[in-house]
Amino acid sequence: MNEKVNRVVIIGTGAVGCSFAYSLINQGVTEELVLVDFNTRKAEGEAMDLNHGMPFAPKPVRVWNGSYEDCKEADLVVITAGLPQKPGETRLQLVEKNTKIFKDIVKQIMDSGFNGIFLVATNPVDILTYVTWKESGLPKERVIGSGTVLDSSRLRYEVSQLIKVDTRNVHAVIIGEHGDTELPVWSHATIGIQSLEDKKEVTKDALEEVFVNVRDAAYNIINRKGATFYGIGMSLVRITKAILFNENSLLTVSAYLEGQYGERDVYIGVPAIVNRSGVREIIELDLTPEEQEKFGHSVSVLKNTMKPIV
Asked: Is residue 178 flagged as an active site residue?
């Protein structure tokens, strides 16, 4: 019986791609997992290593090192390939180098006959998601960036440490560029059902320190261990589950704006409903004037950076 199964293809078997693959298997999210890398021997070795842990996985997953041809039957292609961020380097400084890499990757994926959903993780993620959309010709809803899902997770963690409550009970988001111009939406942050602004013991200075820790988290991790990969790997699994399981989950992915928040023709991190079709809809939060100004600035920085490459 030839039963349809979910297939995820990961392009790039660096630290992020392999952390994502490892998390996918341990959470039993997909039935087929294909690893693609220009270094085919490394991809083969990673597939072998992952397969040796399969007796301990929650459910069977068929894992192999493949090629772009395997994208034809894929439900989801996740791109983690590209040059990593170096110590002292901003995500936006990677733009020209990784754009060239991406154009070649996306062309080869589309040449396979791929007609699923793209999920982009490589930095600068908002710009490379835009490049992927343009190069693929797919509907905007089916090209998604990891956006500020990880940043929002970092924010929830930092707030939970500040007020000593379970991270899962903190509901707060970062929006904007996945980078230095991102911003927290404190006006909509809650602890359970209580507004964060109602917690009088939480000062503005404390919240500013929380945000700085979130904004600079990647720099601090890179300076200590050379790269970030566990957090983004688990973030990619969260988005993948929302897609493959048709969850209609609210996640701050990088999505294409067509007038939402007063902005157009840009991919940027915003709250969106994600399901099997990709981005079902973008949720427009009622931002404060200060938040709206900061969001507009974030959009401007992305657009100005994109000008030479799109």
From this structure: yes
